[in-house]
User: Fold these one by one.
Assistant:
Number 1:
Amino acid sequence: MPFVTEAARHVIAAGGKRFRPLLVILASALGTPRSAEDLTRAALVMELTHVASLYHDDVMDEADMRRGAPSANSVWDNSVAILVGDYLFARASDIVADLGVDFVRLQARTFSRLVQGQIAETLGPAEDQDAVGAYLAVVADKTGSLIASSAMFGGMVAGLPADQIEALAGFGEELGVVFQLSDDIIDITSESTGKTPGTDLREGVATLPTLMLADYDDAESRDLLRLVEGDLTDDATLAETLRRLREHEVIEKARAEVARRAEVARAHLAVLPEGMAREALSELCDTVVTRSV
Ligand code: FPP
Ligand code: MG
Ligand code: MG
């Protein structure tokens, strides 16, 4: 149906970093991909799954911008965005079937973790749960899982041995967490991400900098935390909160934590074969730490 195709192309055509397909390709270069067609399929499945999740995420977050363009829910409406997200996931499922049952199973398990991460984020931590621990578990599920699967897909297409696939899983999961933690900081600090700054804050979604703010007990920090936890639907209040957060030391503290975790990701690479592909994966750790979009 031409309308579905147009709506499905909307977010893909808007741009994006293509981080997941890049990871599939780099991981596959640790060995020799069994065919160019299967490598393309593996990369495509990961990007389509990611884009499908963005259509749904923008509905849940009531986001009006994505990749520098109006989000699908704002161009059309929530129903179209949800159904087109479903359609893209169906297309990804069709393609993954050609790769074999191991790929299908990993894709299904990844989908299950994405959904569970989103639900846990929506529910928020339980009374007796540590807020930072709950947040990191959400991040691992909603972002780490698909990035881990991207690294694994690449390794699987290249027929790497089980211990190397396991190392890629550990690397991808940690890199995915670092990627999302950077994203959370950028949501506060950058005006040029292609998304509306402060979306997480406005929606009351906990992120690393706001959680770390609770560790400070000076008057300015306590006052800022009250603002962060209050109603931020008013544009002027949101802008003021963003301005004060950007000037707070907590942003640097959060950045330091991101850099520390990038080294944890890098450590997983030690068991992989030395060479250009491993170097490139190592460089990805630096890119994720320093990224500003
Ligand atoms: C973005 O987080 C959201 C995700 C990484 C996962 C979304 C997953 C779902 C909606 C489950 C359904 C999945 C499929 C495949 C249909 P964010 O809101 O913090 O990031 P943002 O700043 O990019 O919006
Ligand atoms: Mg979002
Ligand atoms: Mg979200």
Number 2:
Amino acid sequence: AAEEGFDIEDVEGAIEEVGHGPLPVLAVIGRPNVGKSTLVNRIIGRREAVVEDRPGVTRDRVTYEAEWAGRRFKLVDTGGWEQDVLGIDASVAAQAEYAIEAADAVVFVVDATVGATDTDEAVVRLLRKAGKPVVLCANKVDGPSGEADATALWALGLGEPHPVSALHGRGTGDMLDAVLDALPEAPEQTFGTAIGGPRRIALIGRPNVGKSSLLNKVANEDRVVVNELAGTTRDPVDELIELGGVTWKFVDTAGIRKRVHLQQGADYYASLRTAAAVEKAEVAVILIDASESISVQDQRIVTMAVEAGRAIVVAYNKWDTLDEERRYYLEREIETELAQVAWAPRVNVSAATGRHMEKLVPAIETAIEGWETRVPTGRLNAFLGEIVASHPHPVRGGKQPRILFGTQAGTKPPRFVFFASGFIEAGYRRFLERRLREEFGFEGTPIHISVRVRE
Ligand code: GDP
Ligand code: GDP
């Protein structure tokens, strides 16, 4: 590919950068006000995870991409959590549980100026049980005089406490080095050991769309009790369910069950749980309540699955309740509100009557197929050559930027790198994506296109 100014190292570098598989997941957990959001801000280097002194602020953005020393990972921020009816211990435990479940490694933040509290001890027990690698962050060590506070946290039995000032940046570099040591190169639970194992499905959607009903229906038994509040026994987290002669793993089914503590902070928990499930899955089956208007919350869930790069199926549930008029408006809403997943296979189901349940598996299989598709470089470039000839980029400032060469750097989801002779406008990028989809399918999968411009 040493054509038109790109040498092979440019190409290889770009492929390596873009073609990375799914990223390992780091969760930042701890009590409220220990500085989790401040730390997340510091790590991602932006002011995106808004720090609020005011409690009870609901945020639904819970995952971020981060990079340290050339390694990329996903960061799960649990800072948007609010205390609920069950009190602080139960809330922190629930929050930590979701986050730990989704993570490959955990940063446990403790306020060193306060020292270890009973709640911190309770989280330590959860961490022990989960067995995930833990980096202990002794936060609010703003200067040398605070070091002794950090040392006291050896008592938690989690190994070396890393003295950090999330606010000023002190010690965060050393702590992140320890994080990289703890974090696997690739997400283990998602794509390592399970290769060749059952496919992992996350059944997601806002409360009351019918997730537990659908799970019941496909499991063909009352495995998940609809509307029941969680009892004292621990719910199963992942369930193996046979569908269409194939065994699938439905991840995070415990999260599908309604919980007492979901009464408050429900939106935030729901987002965290959804993010956790999506991280663990290959396929997201997004449930939409067809009897109601498509909401912003539905769209956020869709965005979460798209951004996570999962294979996606959209299931419109409660189809049994639809009359002619609602069906008409639903189609209009889908066109306008869910355009971002217009490429996803769609099924119109009823968890209540069992309508079209048999269409779910073929839709999932289609989505996985798109997600794993690899286009050979020769075919891709023949296709690009045709497009560039028939639909060239508009001339800008007397120049015509051209796509010179492209390659698919990765799959799951498909990622492309295109090399260009000038800046490629957003409209033309969208056009390229559309044409790629027309040509090669990619049904049910997001695709990433990154464009490198020759200097
Ligand atoms: P979260 O609830 O755990 O996400 O905590 P926040 O990140 O919202 O921080 C809670 C409060 O502690 C805020 O007022 C922060 O400015 C403050 N804070 C966070 N990190 C530090 C730190 O390293 N040193 C000091 N002195 N204050 C901090
Ligand atoms: P979840 O919160 O997403 O798990 O939703 P649930 O499974 O608890 O369902 C919420 C409510 O919708 C319950 O009252 C269900 O009986 C009802 N429901 C679920 N699926 C259907 C369906 O396909 N048709 C109808 N008519 N009702 C449904």
